[in-house]
Amino acid sequence: MFTPPYTHPLNLQATLKQRGFALLPAADVASLSGCTLNDLLALNESWSRLGADNYLKDGGKYRSRRHGSCVVSGSGVKPVPHRAHWQPVEYNALHGGMERMFEPLEDATLSGALRAVLAWLGGLSSHLRSPQDWFTEVHQFRIDTAGGIGRPTPEGAHRDGVDLVAVFLVARERVKGGETRVFEADAPGGQRFTLTEPWSVLLLDDARMIHETTPIQPAGEASELRGYRDTLVVTLRSNGFQDAV
To answer: What is the CATH T-level fold of the domain 9-237, as seen in this structure?
Structure first.
């Protein structure tokens, strides 16, 4: 496994502007968002209550998730009525063009710690672009190995059609694989690494970078136990949510 090339927090904005992506360890995520690491870790248990993703076109049963939407304005985080997740086929060739209605985030999940993270990401997006409202979607994912293999990105390498993407590794238990790969959208450059630390994060300038994560498989002597990889994916977009035309 390749170690994530972490960025010093003082260089975060410059690194995102220059390289198009940056990684932070969990301690810096907590510090920059103004909460404690224990506050973030307290959210982890909610990943055991996600609903099945019934929209997988590959027929898999390896993914469960919840989804929520909000508008981040300054330090304010305002949830909006539950809505379907939609992407155009240009960004998601496998599941684009579908209105996918997932189970909503639990009220307790959208708590002080997660709100602090969303406000921080909104401020970061405003520094990278310009101060404005950010139309934010929050996805809880669990990819498991009950069927022998789980695919974090069944659509392959992709962009999301937003401004900023944040991929937090929440938990990783009894699995191998799950390597993250990022590529420049208009150049041959790329990098690969494996996120393993709970609440470490990959930040992406979505206009410039393509990303994917390789499949996971059971690992260890207890491979008969279900392995899983939990992530929190947050996308921030200017000028409104992506909605079906």
So the answer is: Jelly Rolls (2.60.120)
Domain ranges of the chain: 9-237
For the chain, the distance separating the N- and C-terminal CA atoms, rounded to the nearest angstrom, is 42
Q: What is the mean pLDDT of the chain?
A: 94
Residue type, 99: E
Q: Are 234 and 118 in contact (CB under 8 A)?
A: yes
**Count of CB atoms within 10 A of residue 42's CB?**
14
Compute CA distances 17 → 20, 54, 97, 104, whole Å: 6, 37, 31, 33
pLDDT at position 87 over 90 = no
E strand map for 88-163:
134-144
Distance, CA of 215 to chain centre: 16
Q: In angstroms, what CA-CA distances link 88 with 54, 104, 217, 244?
A: 19, 21, 30, 8
- pLDDT tens for 143-173 read 999 888 999 999 889 999 999 999 999 999 9
Helices (H), the chain: 12-19, 26-33, 37-41, 112-128
Distance CA 130, CA 239 (A): 12
Beta-bridge partners for 180: 193, 213
- C-alpha 17/C-alpha 13 separation (Å) is 6
